[in-house]
Design goal:
3 domains, alpha/beta, single chain, Nucleotidyltransferase, domain 5, about 20% strand, Putative Exopolyphosphatase, EC 3.6.1.11, five-stranded mixed sheet
Length: about 525
């Protein structure tokens, strides 16, 4: 039975669940861990993670990864959301975590976050064939999802997270009337815009996930019964109860809030804006109660893992070309991230085609670039550290049918140089190539370095690229969302490309046409 550790690096907290995947494709949670790290404190105004927050985050992740590995969990899936996604130094944080723990964090978009949340909810409670509205109030963002038992229909990520709203509008406790008015206006405007875009009414139910919604349910139950909530999942909270909690929080000092039975002390400054979001959502959706679901993104990651590994396709029918089929077969046996690898290959080939008048290479070399791109991350099978070198070893020692020994050596070298050091005469393998093949490896690995960086988040935010060749090589990236991480990463990977083409490389973003 497979073991999977899932780490959710949120704006407010870092969670880890240890899951055992069972033979019937279900799972069992063996343990859970949580730390209110507050990674996003001050991050949205500054557009940067603070040094203190980075230190806390790395420290917590080192502890969690060590704990998981000590319990025999070698496969670790880590996802990061809005705080890391939006920070200019989010890439530095991701690199630092990989350097100190060996895990590669997947920074996911708001829409992917919504998809994973809905996957967790859909597998955890009975949805009907009528639209249900799911809301997840995090620290940095709010995900709104509309779906039925058959699947997701609409999703929207809004910048209404509790830490973000607290930083922007609630600068003192209790807030002034003006602050409350500004907060309500901002929340109402964003929620109304999303709901109007969905154009779905009435909703069969409103389901709220995340710790914020759960804490509200605990407070309400304690007030009504004097007893702790026996089960968080499927607990109901009425609109009038949300208004009651909101009214109390809006007038309370920090000390008074800490005296509210059931209130999590670590949410003393963020629960108020979260309640405003939930209350306005119920009002705008015309619903008088919400149902709490205690499953969300972490469970969604587990189900996503199960889905991706359960569905095996007939490789021969899918990929008629024997060389390409064997390359993809090797990538799958090594559990390479297929969507990312194929997208990087697509970007790399686009760069190759648009720079032909500079490199003068042909179709054979083009195929080598594609194969190296598909295989560039297979070294993770051995160890995330130095995975580019492990990729070289795996490719070189794999019998890829249809490729000669020399071609395999070239493909292995291209993959080896997709990151870190550039080709050097002292490197074994590269040193033995002919001068012509050394030039080919330098050019193709230069293109691969940039293509890989342009899919840093593994979510295909950069859809395609166009190259303008002049004294400067301008790579125009057509983007479908926030590509700050990709642009930062690509700017760090231009060294070899600038050398082989002897001109400076710069990037620009072009929004994807609607």
């Amino acid at each position: 039975m497979a073991k999977l550790a899932v780490i959710d690096i949120g704006t407010n907290s870092i969670h880890m669940v240890l899951a055992e995947i069972l033979p019937d494709a279900s799972y069992k949670i063996l343990d859970r861990f949580k730390d209110m790290t507050r990674l996003g404190n001050g991050a949205f105004a500054a557009k940067r993670l603070s040094d203190e927050a980075i230190g806390r985050g790395v420290g917590v992740l080192k502890t969690l990864v060590t704990l998981a590995r000590n319990k025999g969990f070698e496969r670790i899936a880590a996802v990061a959301t809005s705080a890391v996604r939006e920070a200019k130094n989010g890439g530095d944080f991701v690199d630092l975590v990989e350097e100190q723990t060996g895990i590669k964090i997947r920074v996911i978009s708001g829409i992917e976050e919504a998809r994973l949340i809905f996957l967790g909810v859909r597998h955890s409670m009975a949805l009907s064939d009528k639209p249900t509205l799911v809301v997840d109030v995090g620290g940095g963002s709010v995900e709104l999802i509309v779906g039925t038992r058959d699947g997701l229909q609409h999703a929207k990520s809004l910048k209404l997270g509790a830490i973000r709203l607290s930083d922007q509008y609630v600068r003192k406790t209790p807030p002034t009337e003006a602050m409350v008015m500004q907060l309500n206006e901002a929340v109402s405007r964003a929620l109304k815009g999303a709901l109007d875009a969905f154009n779905v009414k009435p909703f069969d139910a409103v389901v709220a996930t995340s710790g914020m919604a759960g804490n509200v349910a605990e407070i309400v139950h304690l007030k009504q019964t004097g007893r702790p909530l026996p089960q968080l999942n499927l607990a109901k909270v009425r609109l009038k109860d949300l208004r009651m909690v909101e009214a109390e929080l809006s007038k309370s000092s920090v000390k008074a809030r800490l005296g509210i039975p059931g209130l999590d002390p670590k949410r003393v400054d963020t629960l108020f804006p979260a309640v405003v979001v939930l209350r306005r959502l119920l009002e705008l959706s015309g619903t008088d109660e919400m149902t709490v679901c205690d499953k969300a993104i972490r469970e969604g990651v587990i189900y996503d893992f199960i889905d991706r590994h359960r569905d095996g396709l007939d490789a021969e029918r899918e990929i008629p070309d024997v060389r390409r089929r064997n390359v993809i077969g090797l990538a799958r046996r090594c559990h390479a991230p297929e969507v990312h690898s194929l997208h990087v290959a697509s970007l790399a080939l686009r760069l190759f085609d648009q720079t032909k008048r500079l490199h003068h290479l042909g179709e054979v070399e083009r195929s080598w670039l594609e194969y190296a791109a598909v295989l560039h991350d297979i070294g993770y099978l051995i160890n995330p550290r130095q995975h580019h070198k492990h990729a070289y070893y795996l490719i070189k020692n794999s019998d890829i049918g249809g490729l000669t020994a020399e071609e395999i050596e070239v493909v292995a070298n291209i993959a080896r140089y997709h990151r870190r050091s550039m080709p050097a005469a002292k490197h074994e393998g590269y040193a033995d190539l002919s001068l012509k093949l050394k030039r080919t490896v330098r050019i193709l690995s230069a293109l691969l370095r940039v293509a890989d960086a342009l899919d840093r988040t593994h979510f295909s935010v950069v859809q395609t690229v166009n190259v303008k060749i002049g004294q400067t090589l301008t790579i125009m990236a057509t983007v479908s969302g926030d590509a700050a991480m990709e642009m930062w990463s690509a700017s760090q990977r231009t060294d070899l490309l600038e050398q082989v083409f002897r001109r400076r490389v710069q990037f620009s973003e072009v929004p994807q046409p609607v």
